[in-house]
């Protein structure tokens, strides 16, 4: 072989090697550049949610506030799409739909699942041993309540991940045709409430019908209900209570410490990466604070608006409140004898309330004293 031919073949081999290496580098570059493109093509994880509230209710707005926080913080990696009550299932059927995966999650209250296990109504119904709603949330997250609720869901074979948040102010006794002055006034009334409040009002002689929020006012309008309670000045105004009643009795022990519940299908939640789980949890904490602040602003404004609309507000007489507490003792004693989990939850709550309630009573000032000093009637 001549030297020229050998050199030519060597050059050809070098050129081929360079093309191969260049092609390999290009392919590797394409692969590296293509990986994010593939992930992007798959799009974000999308969860379809439903609330248990009508679209016009401020409760659905609270659900939307939570969803927005998650979507904003997830930066496109997770997107929750929210629907109002009835869009896929009825309000009281939400938890089953989430457990089965028909929906990926939702927004409601634990008391709505009361029919599955009476112990669940303790997260919202009754006097909570004197704890306010924020204190009840403290028991839930730091006093063992969360573990007990998880135990109940597991025992019911419900595949849900629950998060409680959003302390609700004390709810009214209800809307009536005329002021209620004594417990006997409730006897025979066709009344709407939910959870263990059903047992309280039944014990006071009312004929109770549990209806979701969007069905209450139409039922009152058609005479299917004589009276009803829902939650707060804003919700009651938006749902149309002033159209069917002009009398609202404020203060009650039937639901003085309730909170909201956010639920996810547990299998789908567990499949999420740690980053998205952290976002979901921190959005719960942020929404709990935000909701409580918004409630003070909106409820106080609508409380004034309802009075301009001719609604008369009355304080529930002390005798009725005392009767509620006596009936609650009877109700819980019966439930404890029927349901070991009810007894377990109630005992846990009681133990936490005994020390937390004493601390709160001994520590907090009487804010009403200061309010009356600045805004009460001035003596001449």
Task: Tell me what the structure shows.
- This protein has 13 helices and eleven strands.
- The chain has helices at residues 3-42, 58-74, 94-100, 133-142, 145-155, 197-203, 213-221, 233-239, 266-270, 274-308, 318-338, 340-363, 367-375, and strands at 45-51, 78-83, 105-108, 160-167, 174-176, 190-192, 207-209, 227-228, 247-250, 259-265, 312-315.
- The strands form three sheets. Strands 2-1-3-10-4 form a five-stranded mixed sheet, with helices on both faces.
- Helix 2 (58-74) links the parallel strand 1 and strand 2 (78-83).
- Helix 4 (133-142) packs across helix 12 (340-363).
Q: State which percent range the strand residues make up.
A: 5-15%
How many E strands? Answer: 11
> Element order, helices and strands?
HEHEHEHHEEEHEHEHEEHHEHHH
In CATH, the topology of the domain at 42-167 and 258-296 is named D-Maltodextrin-Binding Protein, domain 2
Order of strands across the main sheet: 2-1-3-10-4
So, the CATH homologous superfamily of the domain at 42-167 and 258-296?
Bacterial extracellular solute-binding protein, family 7
> Unreliable segments (pLDDT under 50, ≥5 consecutive)?
1-41
Distance between the termini: 126 Å
| Second CATH tier, the architecture of the domain at 42-167 and 258-296 | 3-Layer(aba) Sandwich
Query: Structural class of the secondary elements?
Result: alpha/beta
Gyration radius from CA atoms, angstroms:
29 Å
Helix fraction bin: 40-55%
